[in-house]
Amino acid sequence: MRKNYFIHPKALQDLEFDQILSHIATYAHSDKAKEQVMQIAPFVEREVIETVLSQTAEYLTSIESENPLPNHYINPFDEALKKLDIENSFIEPKNLLNIAQAVDIITGLKKFFEKLSGYFPYLLQDIERLKNHPEIARTIHFKIDVYGDVKDTASEELSRIRKQISSVYQEILQIFAREKQRYDKLNYLADIKETIIDERSVLAVQAAFRKKVKGNIVGTSKTGSIVFIQPEATAKLQKQLFNLKYDEKQEIIKILKALTDELRPFKEVLVTYNQYLINLDIIAAKAKFARQIQAIKPEFSVQKELKLVKAHHPLLKITNEKLGLPVIPQNITLNEQQRIIIISGPNAGGKSISLKTVGLLQLMMQSGILIPVHESSRLTIFKSLLTDIGDNQSIENQLSTYSYRLKNMRYFLRKVNPDTLFLIDEFGTGSDPDLGGALAEAFLEEFYKKGAFGIITTHYNNLKLIAGKYPEIINAHMEFDTRNLQPTYQLNIGQAGSSFTFEVAQKIGIPYSIINKAKKKVDKNKVKFDQTLTKMQWEIKKLKDLQKEYDSLKEQLELERQEHIQLNKSLLQKLNRFNRLYQLENDILKAGEKIQKFFEDYFKHQNAKRLTIQVFKWAEMEKNKKFPGLDKNKKQTREKKLDIKRQKSEQRQIKAEVSKELQSKDVVKELEKIEIITMEFTPQIGDQVRIKGSQANAIIEKLEKNKALLNYGKFTALVPVKDLELVLRKN
After folding, report:
1. What pLDDT score does 491 carry?
2. SS3 720
3. Which stretches of 440-519 are assigned E, i.e. beta strand?
4. Among 260, 448, 513, 530, whose Cα sits 20 to 30 Å from the Cα of 46?
5. Is 385 in the same domain as 465?
6. Residue 147 and residue 158 in one domain
7. Contacts of 291 (CB under 8 A, 6+ apart)
8. Is residue 41 a contact partner of residue 1, using CB atoms and an 8 Å limit?
9. Residues 496 and 538 sit within 8 Å (Cβ to Cβ)
10. Which residue range forms the structural domain that includes residue 730?
11. Mean pLDDT of the chain
């Protein structure tokens, strides 16, 4: 990746950006990718930053989803590609295989990203720019096998030579085995019997019998007790084998040169393939690092604004998690109304960490690295980032810390502008407190006038007071637990903080007498100012504790309110169900009573026609109650009208059939039987019954005195026996 010198190299060093890159590099697959990770530098172009961040975020999503990317790791082949510029050169088979695998991977990735373009739009952008040439892989695979060796079938000549080699080699093995067996029977051979020297099989002959074995001496053991002899019978064949292997090597070179010539027109394509896969390796490494530190892609602010919510310093997060220690998240905002923050508070209270967190996260974001913040965070882009952090004493130039810092401030004065973020730790230290503080105040006023954004940490009271003079400068302090005399590492915006110099000394165990002497030597106004800050911090802490208690109580009450709402809703639903059930049962009872009256009237007058008219007249009345205005509705469709007409026709037919059946004596007799059964009914457990005038059936579950316990399935009811009629007798 290209370097971007808008961000001063010293800022990268002060904020330990190289350590972030080192962590990312451990996740890279190839050495080339690791090397390029260490060259990552911030960008200032928003489009570039947006693209690089989005690619990493998409890769992170693929890791955590059901759509992981196919394997895309390769051994980079950029060195091999250099041979394409050298005439009559050739690429080694192993490198050719790497090239073929890269082409296959690119082809597979293109299909993958096109299929899931909705999930990976930014990753798709890069691979869409690559030309598709799967024929490169086919050409290589045709002549190179999966182990990186030239295939026998790469040429007819190579096939012929290798067959000869195999034949001669087998013949050598047979003859050598025969010679070994013969001399072994004569006890001429040493215990090891044979070995290989210079690709030749030789006999291990005892030195005393060397003249009795026909062949060429090719070596001896260290002690001289063994002589290695190539049998005369295999020497000629061995020479032939060497010649054939030489011919094989020359034929392979010829094939590789021809294959390399075929690749030369594709050099630029292969260069882009190689770098694309290295870049994808880097993106994968950044995504895996992001998963380790629980990082996300932040939003870009339309305004000039840096809003970090629940931000963590990534290096501190990694270290503390290994040690099992908590990491206190920070909330910091810089915008047009709050451009400069002055952080004060005790030593070792976390001021420097807060300042470094802002700087490091800004560098990471502008370098396309996801950052550990809450999703509501928003960042802007700064074209320059200036830092003055730590002990900057220059031994080489024989400059003191303060002299070096003054030189640094001179550089700041030349460079700061509205697109600058400056971070200064312990502003003004290194000289006389009054004089150094006054000079620091003058510098800060200049930075303010030039519209720069920044964060400084200080112990100087004059710098704490400057926030009251300028509307866009605001104080902040690191919270300190005055009860236990220890820092909480929590940053609070809006109020300056005490250095707690005497309180910390007291905690360490410095005698009160010395602390009191020190207080007397300090200007009373300064002591009072510091005491006021301490008191204010204590009051702020109490207010915050009360706010937390209030928020907790409010949350609890809200939960209880929601529970009551849910309970009321549930009870209302049950009540509505019971009302519907009651209405249904009531309707059934009324219908039963009505039908009972019809039958009583029929038994009294024995007039079937009258019964029919009464029943259907009642049915029409019920229909009009449930469906008022059905016949008068002019907006009915033709299908509904026809349907109603059919229903009326069926009703007329049913009326006729029912009327005819009711006039039958058999029906009258059956009705009389039903009446007799009803009158003579004696209930038993298990009988299926119903309440007179009702249509709901139930089973008698229990009988006690003159009452029966009826089981309706979903509920039970205790009913007087006299109100029941039999539906079905228990078998």
Report:
1. 83
2. strand
3. 453-457, 473-481, 486-493
4. 448
5. yes
6. no
7. 60, 63, 64
8. yes
9. no
10. 681-731
11. 82
CATH number, domain with residue 206: 1.10.1420.10
Q: Which residues share a beta bridge with 215?
A: 231
The DSSP bridge partners found for residue 477 are 344, 492
- Alpha-carbon gap, residue 137 to 336, rounded angstroms: 56
- Regarding whether 198 and 283 lie in a shared domain, the answer is no
Let me know whether 485 and 376 are in one domain.
yes
CA–chain centroid gap for 291, Å, is 7
Domain boundary among the residues 466, 489, 522 is at: 522
242 and 376 both lie in a single domain: no
Pair 33, 136 in one domain: yes
Total domains, the chain:
4
Q: Is the pLDDT of residue 664 over 70?
A: no
Q: Note whether residue 97 is domain-resident.
A: yes
CA distance 440 to 425: 12
Q: 556: exposed, middle or buried (C-beta count within 10 Å: 0-12, 13-18, 19+)?
A: exposed
Q: Are residues 158 and 148 in the same domain?
A: no
Rounded alpha-carbon distances, angstroms, from residue 636 to 627, 642, 643, 648: 13, 10, 11, 16
In a domain, 583, yes or no: no
Q: Is residue 270 part of a domain?
A: yes
| pTM as predicted | 0.68
Task: Provide CB contacts within 8 A for 177, sequence distance 6+.
Answer: none
Average pLDDT over residues 513-532: 62
Q: pLDDT above 70 covers what percent of the chain?
A: 79
Domain assignment of residue 599, yes or no: no
Task: Specify whether the CB–CB gap between 165 and 241 falls below 8 A.
Answer: yes
pLDDT digit string, tens, across residues 131-157: 999 999 999 999 999 999 999 999 999
Q: How far apart are CA 88 and CA 264, in angstroms?
A: 11
DSSP class of 30: S
Instruction: Choose the final residue of a domain: 476, 503, 522.
Output: 522
pLDDT digits (tens, 9 = 90+) for 554-613: 888 888 788 878 877 777 777 677 667 767 777 777 777 777 777 777 667 777 777 777
Contacts of residue 313, Cβ cutoff 8 Å, sequence gap at least 6? 327, 353, 356, 357, 360
| Cα–Cα separations (whole angstroms), residue 351 to 40, 330, 477, 700 | 28, 11, 8, 82
Exposure b/e, 700-728, CB count within 10 A at least 16 = b = beeeeeebbbbeeeeeeeebeeeebbbee
Q: Which residues contact 680 (CB under 8 A, 6 or more apart)?
A: none
Rounded Cα–Cα distance for residues 423 and 157 (Å): 72
Indicate whether 367 and 443 sit together in one domain.
yes
